[in-house]
Amino acid sequence: MTSDISTSAAGTPAANGHGEAHSTASFKALMIGSIGVVYGDIGTSPLYAFREAVTAASANAVPGGGAGPVLGVLSLILWALIVVVTLKYVVILLRADNNGEGGTLALMALAQRALGTSGGIIVLLGIISGALFYGDAVITPALSVLSAVEGIKLATSALDHYVVPITVLILVALFAVQSRGTARVAAFFGPIMGFWFAVIAVAALPLIAQQPGVLAAFNPAYAVSFLLGHGYIGLVTLGAVFLAVTGAEALYADLGHFGKRPIQSAWLFLVLPSLALNYLGQAALVMSRPDTIENPFFLMFPDWALVPMVVLATVATVIASQAVITGAYSLTRQAIQLGLMPRFEIRHTSEAHSGQIYIPRVNILLLVIVLMLVILFRSSSALASAYGISVTGTMVVTGMMGFVVIWKVWKWHPLAAAALIAPFLLLDLTFLSANLLKVFEGGWVPLALGGIVMLLMYTWRRGSKLLYEKSHKQEIPLRDLITMLEKKPPQRVPGTAVFFTSNPDFAPTALMHSLKHYKVLHQKNVILTIETAQTPRIDPAERFRFEEITDGFARATLRFGFMESPNVPKTLGLARKSGWQFDIMSTSFFLSRRALKPAAHSGMPRWQDHLFISLSRSANDATDYFQIPTGRVVEVGTQITI
């Protein structure tokens, strides 16, 4: 059984309910929480971003140029933080929420709803951005933890050979604890990351005082002149500079968890000043001691503080990795609800917070790929080349969908919307071009992974549509069946039968096969449809619709937001006020279990037919997905060619 994506725009109640959740928590608590979850990725970028950018710039440094390349790179980093993160995300995109929720798929649903039937290109953009996010989800843990552990090499070169094994052990432990949930650990994320930002800012102050000339980097002329004066190397450097803003998408993706104002306040009053000071400090250190470019972040600290900083950096990178892993779970659930992926087992790790989930299959796949990356690249410098393409690609797509939202949802004139978004989109495209230069140095990794995920998403969406159309041709209208049964009534048995279907106007396949083989009909028969709305959550009052057709037949519709996990028995139990006296012990749920076989002629190539069938077989059982007690389920098997 597949559920359709509802095209209705009902959703304001969900926004109200979600907004109340934010108001119950103190502003301070939400801001501290956002520091730990939202800013973990971008907050650990100083470990490697400045080093990689200056190293790239030094490849064509002018002899005797002194501070030129350093100030140019520093200026690029500072203005990337100001323009890309502050203006695009903090000021503009945080306002483009889908009933309180953010992220690429939430933006896709918002833009698609605004365009209506002509929103096919928006779905494609959503698939692209969602697929690219998985590239970010595997590279971030590998790069972040590896760069932190590499700090031990500065303490003693004897530990050089242990960097990769230690990194592997930390990552295995990180993924192993995912099934236990992150609720307790998350309570410590905010204070730890707050301490991290304070430490990296304070450590930079003495260095800036010794080299106050670095403050000149706030003049954008240094960034512009560097790019114009270094040609191809300037573009390569820009790709490394982008490492400083990776994680900006988390600002938008975690909007629903913390709200707009806490995220904005944390960025403006703590995160941005701390990052700016640290990059200024690293630049001051390199200008006074060029040999420190080997690892300017850790060399900012005195020898006695080196080991504690390695430990703190490792903890911070684990937190950054946790945030992106959790994001992968949330994105997967949204993709399932929006019909872009088959059903996977979703476990809830918290009774209080529905957003805290664990998806075993996704966890295992992420771990395997992350470990492969660590073992394949073996150093953060090598892995940095693979970073950036997926994030810049996502930013470009976000900008495109943002234009549609500003134009159609905010009701701006298209020229005004274009004037607002075009500069950011141009900058994102420039960053993307710079990162594409690194394709053969490792950039192929996120592109390959994103391409595979895109293929899987497209195949599932296309195959599901073809399967629905083929099944629909074999169905008969429900009212015609009821008329036939009234003329020639079958034997009745006590109880209620619930038949799942994606089209409530036609008789479900399970009902037809039940009549064909059992020759009986329950006293009460309910045709149940599960709809996934293009809003994150549905207000309880909008959740259930019930329509009595005859004494023996009724139609029911359950609506869920794309960020909610459907619990059918619980929802039906809450729907008694609508006229259905639901009793789980006298109700049987009938599901169709379809065995798919490739057809001689279908709407997809033969290989794609087999891929769709494999995806269908890997889907989690509908009984588990809809949280129905196994003792109340009757599965009716059918064979369908596609």
Name of the CATH architecture of the largest domain: Up-down Bundle
Q: Which residue ranges are poorly predicted, with pLDDT under 50 across at least 5 consecutive positions?
A: 1-24, 61-66
Assembly type of the shown chains?
Answer: single chain
Total strand segments: 8
> How far do the termini sit from each other?
15 Å
Strand arrangement within the widest β-sheet reads 5-6-4-3-7-8
Strand content: 5-15%
Number of domain units: 2
Total of helices: 27
- The share of residues in helices is 55-70%
Classified by CATH, the class of the largest domain is Mainly Alpha
Overall 3D geometry? elongated
Structural class call reads alpha/beta
Give a short account of the largest sheet.
6 strands, mixed
Alpha carbon gyration radius: 27 Å
CATH topology of the largest domain: Amino acid/polyamine transporter I
Mean pLDDT: 84
Description:
The chain has 27 helices and 8 strands. The chain is elongated, with a radius of gyration of 27 Å. Helix 2 (27-37) packs across helix 15, helix 7 packs across helix 9 and helix 7 runs antiparallel to helix 17. The two termini are 15 Å apart. It folds into 2 domains: 12-442, Amino acid/polyamine transporter I, CATH 1.20.1740; 470-641, no CATH class. Strand 5 (544-548) and strand 6 (553-560) form a beta hairpin. The strands form 2 sheets. The protein has a 6-stranded mixed beta sheet with strand order 5-6-4-3-7-8. Strands 1-2 form a two-stranded antiparallel sheet. The longest helix has 32 residues, at 306-337. By secondary structure, the protein is of the alpha/beta class. The chain is 60% helix and 9% strand.
